[in-house]
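sanity check this record:
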Amino acid sequence: MTAVIDRHEGDAKDFALALNPLASRDAPWSAAQDAILSDAAFAQAKATISSWPGYAPTPLVSLPALAASLGIAELRWKDEGGRFGLGSFKALGGAYAVARLLKTLLSEKLGREVSMDEVVANAHPEAAAEVTVCCATDGNHGRSVAWGARTFGARCVIFIHATVSEGRKAAIEAYGAEVRRCAGNYDDSVREAQATADREGWFVVSDTSYPGYMDVPRDVMQGYEMMAAEAYAALEEPPTHVFIQTGVGGLAAAVAAQAVRRWGAARPMIVLADPDRSACWLDSIVAGTPTAVEGDLDTLMAGLACGEVSALAWEVLKDHGDAVMAVPDRAAVEGMRRLARPLPGDPAIVAGESAVAGLAALANALADPRAVEALRLDAASRVLLFGTEGDTDPELYTQLVGLSADQVRAA
């Protein structure tokens, strides 16, 4: 067990920080971890995703003025706002898992091995249309699953919880999915999706894993690795730090996995960033075991509003997630505005609420000497952030930033 070593409360800079005593930069990539995320599995994901119409690596943006103002050497932002027109990195995971699932089901139905090319081309539309996929979502994952289902010919039902915005609901429906709103929080909607699928003979395509449900979330995470691999390949040298938002942890595990397998002990320090109202990774790291957060989890960072960590992500991050921070909603809003109204020399960036938890954690850590020392941040630090969504709720984005996304892009 470890203690929370730093906590501020009562202003825009409040946060909690804990180091992970289980993690080590020297920790090897274990056989158990390789069974979750491996070079071979990633090669399959890369070949599939790069074959989709409209695929292109998303930009890796340099922010020298912001880096200088924060007191570090380099700051890079992987901008996922344009990914396949869906507005977030989630297109890489949910849609890939739908394709993998359909490949398996169509092979069983047709009595022969169906190729991924056949799935992508929707070569068996009648058989694909008999499959219903479903999931629970805070917004972006459901949009990805719905897009994948429409692209590959399956039926789709998406479950959202009580606080998911009407804008995000409509965005999912635009891809042809039926959307059902549930009472309770995200974890309640996960259980409702699974219970309905069991009853109806549907197939859950979830980005979180739990006992008895591992294969599909593994495929989702393998898709997420594409984003990390693109970013790392574009760098001249490894970053010293990656600050990455969590949610259930599948994204963070994929980012860490690529770093460990690519650089080994030379990998960057991996700092996880939780919303303080759903800080399941902070509580789990402090306890040394997966620990659920109860309550409504009502954070503005809706895509990260998860109370239970993914079992697969825990297997990776318990060894390779070096620290975790919990940051408040107001720090996220501050980060959104900071990117939308950049310092001279930096580009303007549209970043949604769930995209900026890593930036919020970095900025808050750099403002506190104890956090700077604990995370080994200094003037030579080279930090990589993943901007995992754009304005996935345009109305809310305008309300929070004071500018529309189109106004920011025009700048």
